[in-house]
């Protein structure tokens, strides 16, 4: 017999809190076989904090499906509304780089939840890691789908079509790999909790996933904001996981040294990498030059300095942690006085022939905006960008090889961003080998944080820098045309380059392999290592002094 | 934008590359790349394919971020495997959400109709003690896959394993929430009894032992997929779900429990499909196929006896319901047939001396 309406109304709905209490009880302490400790950590764990999100999969899946419905509906609407009629190609071109990188760090974050789940003895948090794992699967595949969508609907698909190959080959995506591989290797807590959750997700996803969508909208791109704001709405879960995990290690005084090391390494490297990439895209990928628009440093001050550093990081000191306030100050100074983002963007534009996206020359509106937001910008960068514009037609030397006064930079062994703030470059030896670093903090990262011990205690779980870390070394002595062919950055006609230093969609104006033949590429670090001590000293002195654009 | 250019729409101009609108860096499995392949293939890079500079951060022992030696399986092309389910985030959420809605609706409707009070008392106890105990096995396997998805050698392998984890954890939670709802209507139902049985009742101890042994496997993700999906599931997991719950529930006035269990059976069909495809790829590898066959033989020698023991220990449960719909022996015979048929699908045999 059907239940009466009054009885139905009296029925209790699912209480998330009650449900969560039961779900966390699914785990048990094994007694027949101990779970393998698959991933190393030097951290110790104390009493369990609570997972304040209290989520269960029943409500989660429904909520995510609803979010997806909105995302995919918006993408259809964008096409019906002819979004690409008004979208700025300058912006979409940079999406070839951004979306070339980001799906890998996202899926790496999913993988890293295995590491936390393995080492953190807390069933409530393990439940949270499972949600994060599925979220990150969402992010990686939804971003790949967005990239495919751009490829299918934007005027120039070249660069999107080779995307994952390009990700493995490009000098710029190496920087993104340093970011993503940082989540999945070495000490499980260093990698997946501090580097990923406490710093990348808590501090920097706002610049990645909030500031970037805002700039996309200003450039007529409604698809990226729809997807990335939806992605960002999952981040509170991850920030919560991060904080819960941090509370488990914070209670052990033995961990404080390691936390100091890891927060320092993670903050500095996130600053170097995320600010380089997102800063360049937001400032140089936009056509929106409204004077009242916030600059990247304005956004950084709000999201990273105020919301993260002052409200989240600094208060951790009350637990006895040492926070390197001077590093936050140093990052701020690099962004403002050091004009870090502008120097990185200049480097990306210098390297245009080995990109897989186009970089549009700047115009007078751009110059005016930069000068207003960053007084002194034109004096330092204006002439170089004028050269870039003049040299953007085939038949000229590629700007990296033209005599404009620019000196191709050394690359930082730690963060893999070039040492663009010349006076900050540091050279040091580790295990008898010479390395270059963009900053003292990056030197410390390689030599101290990533060594076998820290403050006199062994740190056997810490990862190691490996591989052919410097892209330039791989192609030392190669001809530029051969490098581009080897990377596969050539269009289907077999001669026209994928990258172009302009937005002309016209074969007559596009560079081909013939235009870049005969330029020998040199690796700065190989050259530096080949020098005599005297030559090297002189070279470093000159490098610190910087360069003058003719 | 160039002066003459007024639109960024596809095909607005013709130039080199303007028609290159497909990802061109991998070979699709079929004639055309599927959406699943487009959003999956090569997202996890590989020095054997496009990772020019190799992995740039290693583990403390010098092993790369993804190390072949973590599994005994060898492959001449880790990227050959494609998940036949083609799951990515969009269809994953649609599927999981549909299941959750269906389960919630079934329970809600049963509550409104007062169905739970009509469930046979002996069967209520089976649900309380044994169906509830099984949620811990499902959860344990979900956590095994959660960790296995870190270490596979391609994005396709790891995403399939990730989805498997999501399925298992969802089902374990669904049982948990179902019991919570049941306990609202059946005041005598003890929600803690399942865990108590899981931890202490002899009938569940071999199942717990084998579940724990899967979590004790150190980094061999392929061993975990093989042992769970190709050995444990047909011999133990499916034996209990299909061979017992699905057979007995209706005769005891219970249509809700089978509706929930059927979602796990559908999950398993999918997870079996990817596991069969994955191991067919490994076992037919032109270079390493024979090695891989030997490896799977060793795994069978280790896990088949454990799973057979676990299955046999469950036997007393078949005699607990009031209506004897079928015998353990019938159910186990069907499980053996299923297991043999799975081995047939990947073209391997039970090692000599290993008895079912």
Describe the structure.
The complex is a heterodimer of chains A (550) and B (356). Chain A is mostly helical. In chain A, 57% of the residues lie in helices and 3% in strands. In chain A, the strands form two sheets. Chain A has a two-stranded antiparallel ribbon. In chain A, strands 3-4 form a two-stranded antiparallel ribbon. Chain A is globular and about 70 Å long. Chain B has one domain (89-345): Ribonucleotide Reductase, subunit A. The mean pLDDT of chain B is 97. In chain B, helix 2 runs antiparallel to helix 8. Classes of the chains: A mainly alpha (550), B mainly alpha (356). Chains A and B meet through helix 2, helix 3, helix 4, helix 5 and helix 6 of A and helix 1, strand 1, helix 2, helix 3 and helix 4 of B. Strand 5 (464-465) of chain A pairs antiparallel with strand 1 of chain B.
Count the helices of chain B. How many?
10
Overall geometric form of chain B: globular
**Termini separation of chain A (Å)?**
90 Å
CATH topology of chain B: Ribonucleotide Reductase, subunit A
Based on helices, strands and strand pairing, what is the structural class of chain B?
A: mainly alpha
Q: How would you sum up the major sheet of chain A?
A: 2 strands, antiparallel
Can you list the strand order of the major beta sheet of chain A? 1-2
Determine the CATH topology of the domain at 57-289 in chain A: Ribonucleotide Reductase, subunit A
The CATH homology group name of the domain at 57-289 in chain A = Ribonucleotide Reductase, subunit A
User: Largest beta sheet of chain B, briefly?
Assistant: none
Instruction: Report the CATH superfamily of chain B.
Output: Ribonucleotide Reductase, subunit A
How many distinct beta strands of chain B?
1
Mean pLDDT of chain B: 97
Low-pLDDT residue spans of chain B: none
CATH architecture type of the domain at 57-289 in chain A: Orthogonal Bundle
User: Kindly state the mean pLDDT of chain A as a whole number?
Assistant: 95
What is the approximate shape of chain A? Answer: globular
């Amino acid at each position: 017999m059907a239940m009466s309406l009054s009885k139905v109304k009296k029925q209790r709905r699912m209480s998330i809190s009650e449900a969560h209490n039961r779900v966390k009880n699914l785990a048990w302490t094994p007694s027949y076989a101990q779970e393998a400790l698959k991933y190393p950590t030097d951290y110790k764990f104390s009493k369990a904090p609570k997972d304040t999100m209290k989520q269960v999969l029943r409500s989660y899946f429904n909520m995510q499906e609803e979010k997806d419905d909105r995302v995919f509906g918006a993408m259809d609407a964008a096409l019906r509304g002819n979004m690409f009629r008004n979208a700025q190609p300058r912006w979409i071109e940079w999406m070839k780089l951004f979306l070339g990188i980001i799906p890998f760090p996202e899926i790496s974050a999913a993988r890293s939840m295995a590491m936390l789940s393995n080492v953190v003895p807390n069933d409530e948090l393990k439940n949270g890691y499972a949600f994060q794992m599925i979220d990150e699967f969402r992010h990686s595949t939804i971003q790949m789908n967005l990239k495919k969508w751009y490829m299918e609907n934007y005027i120039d698909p070249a660069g999107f079509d080779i995307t994952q190959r390009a990700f493995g080959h490009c000098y710029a995506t190496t920087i993104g790999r340093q970011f993503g591989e940082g989540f999945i290797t070495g000490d499980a807590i260093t990698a997946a909790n501090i580097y990923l959750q406490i710093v990348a997700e808590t501090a920097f996803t706002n610049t990645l996933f909030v500031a970037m969508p805002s700039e996309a909208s200003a450039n007529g791109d409604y698809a990226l904001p729809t997807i990335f704001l939806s992605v960002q709405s999952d981040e509170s879960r991850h920030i919560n996981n991060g904080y819960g995990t941090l509370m488990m290690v914070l209670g052990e005084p033995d961990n404080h040294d390691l936390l100091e090391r890891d927060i320092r390494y993670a903050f500095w490297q996130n600053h170097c990498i995320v600010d380089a990439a997102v800063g360049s895209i937001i400032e140089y990928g936009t056509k929106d030059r409204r004077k009242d628009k916030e600059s990247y440093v304005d956004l950084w001050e709000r999201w990273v300095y105020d919301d993260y550093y002052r409200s989240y990081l600094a208060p951790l000191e009350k637990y006895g942690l040492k926070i390197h306030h001077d590093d936050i100050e140093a990052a701020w100074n690099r962004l403002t006085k050091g004009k870090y983002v502008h120097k990185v963007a200049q480097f990306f534009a210098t390297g245009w022939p080995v990109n897989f996206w186009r970089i549009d020359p700047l115009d007078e509106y751009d110059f005016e905006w930069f000068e207003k937001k960053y007084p002194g910008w034109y004096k330092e960068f204006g002439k170089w960008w004028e050269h870039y514009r003049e040299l953007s037609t085939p038949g000229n030397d590629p700007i990296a090889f033209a005599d404009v006064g620019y000196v191709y930079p050394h690359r930082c062994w730690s963060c893999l961003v070039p040492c663009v703030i010349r006076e900050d470059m540091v050279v040091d030896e580790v295990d008898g080998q010479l390395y270059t670093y963009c900053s003292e903090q990056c030197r410390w990262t390689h030599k101290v944080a990533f060594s076998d011990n820290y403050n006199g205690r062994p740190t056997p779980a810490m990862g190691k820098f490996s591989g052919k870390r410097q892209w330039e070394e791989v192609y030392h002595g190669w001809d530029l045309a051969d490098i581009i062919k080897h990377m596969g950055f050539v269009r289907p006609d077999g001669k026209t380059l994928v990258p172009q230093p302009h937005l002309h969609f016209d074969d007559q104006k596009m560079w081909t392999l013939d235009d870049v033949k005969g330029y020998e590429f040199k690796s700065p670090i190989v050259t530096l290592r080949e020098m005599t001590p005297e030559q090297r000293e002189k070279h470093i002195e000159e490098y610190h002094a910087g360069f003058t654009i003719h | 934008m160039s002066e003459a250019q007024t639109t960024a729409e596809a095909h607005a101009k013709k130039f080199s590359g303007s028609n290159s609108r497909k990802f061109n860096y991998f070979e699709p499995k079929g004639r055309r790349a599927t959406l699943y392949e487009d959003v999956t293939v090569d997202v996890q890079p590989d020095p054997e394919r496009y990772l020019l500079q190799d992995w740039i951060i290693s583990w403390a022992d010098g092993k790369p971020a993804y190390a072949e030696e973590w599994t005994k399986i060898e492959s001449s092309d880790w990227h050959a495997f494609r998940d036949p389910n083609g799951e990515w985030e969009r269809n994953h959420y649609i599927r999981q959400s549909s299941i959750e809605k269906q389960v919630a609706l079934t329970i809600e409707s049963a509550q409104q109709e007062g169905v739970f009070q009509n469930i046979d008392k002996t069967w209520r106890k089976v649900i309380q003690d044994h169906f509830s105990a099984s949620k811990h096995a499902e959860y344990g396997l979900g956590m095994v896959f959660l960790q296995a998805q870190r270490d596979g050698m391609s994005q396709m392998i790891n995403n399939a394993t990730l989805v498997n984890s999501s399925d298992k954890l969802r089902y374990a939670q669904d049982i948990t929430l179902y019991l919570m709802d049941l306990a609202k209507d059946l005041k005598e139902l003890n929600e803690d009894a399942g865990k108590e049985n899981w931890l202490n009742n002899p009938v569940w101890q071999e199942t717990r032992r084998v579940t724990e042994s899967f979590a004790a496997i150190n980094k061999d993700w392929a061993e975990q997929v093989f042992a769970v999906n190709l050995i444990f599931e047909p011999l133990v997991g499916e034996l209990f779900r299909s061979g017992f719950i699905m057979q007995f529930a209706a005769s005891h006035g219970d249509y809700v429990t089978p509706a929930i269990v059927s979602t796990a059976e559908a999950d398993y069909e999918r997870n079996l499909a990817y596991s069969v495809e994955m191991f067919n790829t490994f076992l037919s590898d032109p270079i390493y196929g024979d090695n891989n066959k030997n490896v799977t033989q060793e795994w069978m020698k280790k896990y088949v006896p454990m799973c057979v023991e676990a299955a046999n220990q469950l036997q007393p449960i078949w005699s607990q319901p009031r209506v004897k719909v079928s015998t353990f022996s019938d159910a186990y015979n069907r499980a053996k047939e299923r297991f043999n048929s799975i081995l047939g699908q990947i073209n391997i045999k039970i090692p000599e001396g290993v008895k079912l």
